[in-house]
Amino acid sequence: MHESTDDGVGRLPATGCGDEHLRLAQAFPLVYDELRRIAHRALLRASGGATLSTTALVNEAYVKLAGNAALALQDRTHLLALCTRAMRQIMVDHARRRHAEKRGGGGGGALPLGAIEASAGDRPEVIVALDEALTALAERDPRLVRLIEYRLFGGLDSTQAAALLGLTPRSVQREWLRARAWIGHALALEANE
Question: Which residues form the RNA polymerase sigma-70 ECF-like HTH domain (predicted)?
Fold first, then answer.
C-alpha cells in the first residue's frame, strides 16, 4: 500500500513504479472543468471551420498523456502544463491534416502573430507555421515556448501563465512582449520564403 500525498491535485498515491497512470486517472477529473475552459478558449482562437470540439480536445489530451510511458506527474500545475502542451500538439496535428487537404487551394501571405487568432481556423497553415517557429525557439528559450503555449494554445491570461511558470504576472507580461516579437519575426521570415 502506498502513502498518499496532497500535491495540489488532491489526495493521490505517492509516486512509485507504475503509479503515474493511476495518478493521472485520479487527477484528471479534478481539473477536467478547467481543462474544458482552456480547450474552449483555444478552439475559439482557432475557430472558422475547426472540426475539433472542446470535449474531443480534452479527451484527446488525456489519451495522449495516458499513452506516455515516461509521464512524471508532479502536481496540479504540472498536469495543466502537460495538458496544454498536449492540446497544442493535437491542434497542430489537426491543422496539418486540414492544411494537407487544402494544399494547392491558395493561401500564402504574411503570417503576423496578431492575425493568428483570427485566421488560424481558416488558414491551418498558420498553426503549422507557428508550431515550426516554436520548435526552433525551443532550442534557445524553452520557457518562452511554454509561455506561448499557455497564452495562445491554452488561452491562459498573464496571471494563470505566471503561476504555471513560477513568475510574477509583470514578468510574464514582459516575456509576452518578447515572445510576440520573436514569433512575429519568425512567421514573417517563413511567409517570405
Answer: 25-187
Tell me if 70 is assigned to some domain.
yes
In tens, the pLDDT along 41-87 reads 877 776 544 567 888 888 889 888 888 877 888 888 888 888 888 88
Grid look-up 517557429 returns 133
Q: Which residues contact 61 (CB under 8 A, 6 or more apart)?
A: 35, 39, 83, 86, 87, 90
Cell numbers that stand for 91 in this block: 491542434
Count of structural domains, the chain = 1
Structural domain containing residue 158: 9-192
* Nearest residue to 126 via CA among 116, 137, 139: 116
Sequence-separated contacts (24+) of 68-75 with Cβ below 8 Å: 71/20, 71/21, 71/24, 72/15, 72/20, 73/9, 73/15, 73/20, 73/23, 73/24, 73/27, 74/7, 75/7, 75/8, 75/9
CA distance 162 to 167: 5
**What's the CA gap between 152 and 36, in Å, rounded?**
15
Residue 123 lies in a domain: yes
The three-class DSSP label of residue 86 is helix
